[in-house]
Amino acid sequence: MSILEQTIKTIYPQDSSYRDLAKERLDQLALPHWALGDLMDLAIDLAGITRSLKPAVQGKAIVTMAGDHGVVAEGVSKFPQEVTSQMVHNFVNGGAGINALARQAGAEVVVVDMGVAADMDDLARQGKIINKKIGYGTNNIAKGAAMSAANAIRAVEAGIDIANELSGSVDIFGTGDMGIGNTTPSTAIAAVITGKSVAELTGRGTGLDDEQLAHKQQVITKILECNKPDPKNGIDILAKIGGFEIGGIAGLILGAAAQQKPVVVDGFISTAGALIAIAIEPFVRDYIVCAHRSMEPGHRFMQEKIGCRPLLDLNLRLGEGTGAALAMNLVEASVAVLTEVATFEEAAVAGADK
Amino acid sequence: MSILEQTIKTIYPQDSSYRDLAKERLDQLALPHWALGDLMDLAIDLAGITRSLKPAVQGKAIVTMAGDHGVVAEGVSKFPQEVTSQMVHNFVNGGAGINALARQAGAEVVVVDMGVAADMDDLARQGKIINKKIGYGTNNIAKGAAMSAANAIRAVEAGIDIANELSGSVDIFGTGDMGIGNTTPSTAIAAVITGKSVAELTGRGTGLDDEQLAHKQQVITKILECNKPDPKNGIDILAKIGGFEIGGIAGLILGAAAQQKPVVVDGFISTAGALIAIAIEPFVRDYIVCAHRSMEPGHRFMQEKIGCRPLLDLNLRLGEGTGAALAMNLVEASVAVLTEVATFEEAAVAGADK
After folding, report:
1. DSSP, res A62
2. Whether this model's pTM surpasses 0.90
């Protein structure tokens, strides 16, 4: 049995008995009923995910997956492809947005080369990144499949491996991405899985003007016509549309769910990875915390498909895992509510009139 | 010249030259332009507030002001009045929502007795709370003024004192409140200052049913008819409607602004304090960060009047400073973006096509 098959077999829904026990405690806290709102809902999820009334959230890691996309040949991004590898160096040097925000949240940043179109061996040898390179960028999906089905499985299994390797020290995972052009495959994945139109889903990515946006929509329409993935088959969607880092993210989410640990899903690209993971195994949905609502218009429809309400809405559109890092503070806060707040009885505080 | 008059004289708008310098740096960061959205807007505010490109945000304090309200005699709350003093003990013992969330955010909780209707001397003598008691609860505002004009000034000056005393070690202030019945005066203050109707503004507080809500609206209408405060006079509004803790919050905000430090304003009651502070000195608006959007329906109109977009929207309705504690992580994150993220040039990353 493959790693992927083995992993899928160990993913179960949240434990409803721990959810019930958490709710019972939260109902008794010395505050007006449910007055900490969404934090209390989140605390129930954490109990159900971790099978604990004291969910561990100390060890935090943002796993930032990098990969390139052959579709940049179609002119879908304002930035040149070499920015992907340049940003990997920036992550390693600690100067990127994700480094600053992960530090603030007390999270480690783990950088993975899933398929950057440049030689990253030096950084891998120095232990500064994890090497899971499947290729030097995907094929141009406007002209054919992103990768073989075998490589799609390899990409997902690479993400699972990383979740397994980190899970000794990591209690809570965050997803992140880097890949010039990757809003294009992510939008195509969203179109396949949500059934929404390309016009509704497509955004300006890193900053396209009206003409460039119209062109991007044409390219995405061409990708869908040319590849026709099966909307019910996550591996088929990943193989045909890509990319390598999206597969890695899907695998990380599957691996976290198998480890019964929460995974905070970042923005637009990470959510495309989450949709692939859910297509592979629907139970993973129970382990996903949606970090934020991206400025990309399609993000809303993707989150509605997953059925989660994002914690933050701050007009972010960076990726890298930045929204996930910000949201980790809220996950930690929700656990603090469950574990540190006294009940009416414990605090000797009078309750409400019935 | 009184402390209040002296303080008002030292409150200036944000420094536009530091705002410009911050924007210049943020424009050059190695990310798609303004891709960290609201965090970048907030970073500009922090630079303008602190007159620094490296705003200090290490020292964090939530100042939770407690006071009682004579209007509880009208049956506007589901909880008995003694809960105010019981919750002060809970704060001191570290078991309340604010303790859990402040710990997560690395903030100190400073509890102030502004006018609790119980003897708090023991806690004050032990140095566990700050004693600024103006009285044992306000008068019943459905029948007359909450307090004298002199006491309204004393309440505001108490808040200013605390900001001044703490400002040696505190870089960023958060406001908080505790006071059974205090959504009633807060709603009345909102009605006076926003001009919106009582029906639009009034919410269920700690959990009123439909009948109790209708009764609360009648009481608030009576308060407004009986007291007729001058909407342009913050001290008059405070004296006539109260409460002591709302005055303390207004003073804390004025004091923070005079110290050129950011003040994160929590929920519905804290925002009533902010409206009083702005009525006293409009320039304080520049120092206010709105933490979150409360479930109380009037909160939106109050924040629109202030002209600020809240950072969080998590269906909170607890007060105590809980939303402010959560938002402090975002303020700290915004400063990390300004001070820790490399520019395109520093990171040797290629920019976008022009």
Report:
1. E
2. yes
Which residue out of A281, A320, A340, A345 is catalytically annotated? A320
Quickly tell me which residue has 């599957």 as its tokens.
A254
Smallest CA-to-CA distance from A155 within A171, A119, A123, A179 is with A179
Which residue among A32, A39, A82 sits closest to B314, beta carbon to beta carbon?
A39
Alpha-carbon separation of residue A265 from A169, A310, B190, B335 (angstroms): 19, 9, 38, 23
A79 neighbourhood in chain B, CB within 8 Å: 32, 350-353
The SS3 assignment for A57 reads coil
User: Are A64 and A112 within 8 A, CB to CB?
Assistant: yes
Spatial distance between the Cα atoms of A248 and A140, rounded to a whole number of angstroms: 19
Nearest to B329 among A83, A96, A329 (CB): A329
Determine contact: A72 vs chain B, CB below 8 A.
Answer: no
- Does residue A21 sit at the B interface (CB-CB below 8 Å)? no
Q: Delimit the domains of chain A by residue range.
A: 60-337
Report the topology of domain A60-337: Rossmann fold (3.40.50)
Q: Does the ipTM exceed 0.95? A: yes
Q: Mean of the pLDDT values across residues A257-282? A: 98
Which of the 8 DSSP states describes residue B180?
A: T
Q: Is residue A183 within 8 Å of A298, Cβ to Cβ?
A: no
- pLDDT average per 10 residues of sequence, chain B (354 residues): 96 98 98 97 98 98 98 95 98 98 98 98 97 98 98 98 98 98 97 97 87 95 98 98 98 98 98 98 98 96 97 97 98 98 96 77
Q: Sheet containing B108-115: which strands, arranged edge to edge? A: B130-131, B108-115, B60-67, B172-178, B263-265, B288-290
Residue labelled with tokens 């959230």: A57
- What are B13's two structure tokens? 């708008």
Does A99 contact B312 at a Cβ distance shorter than 8 Å?
Answer: no
> Using the beta-carbon criterion (under 8 Å), do A99 and B340 form an inter-chain contact?
yes
Q: Taking CB atoms and an 8 Å limit, are B37 and A105 in contact across chains?
A: no
Using a CB-CB cut-off of 8 Å, the residues of chain B touching A87 are 30, 347, 349
Q: Is the pLDDT of residue A354 over 80?
A: no
Residue B354 has a pLDDT of 61
pLDDT in tens, A7-66: 999 999 999 999 999 999 999 999 999 999 999 999 999 999 999 999 999 999 999 999
Query: Is-catalytic flag, B245?
Result: no
Q: Could you tell me the CA-to-CA distances from A252 to A114, B20, B199 in Å, in that order?
A: 12, 41, 49
Does B27 touch chain A if contact means CB atoms closer than 8 Å? no
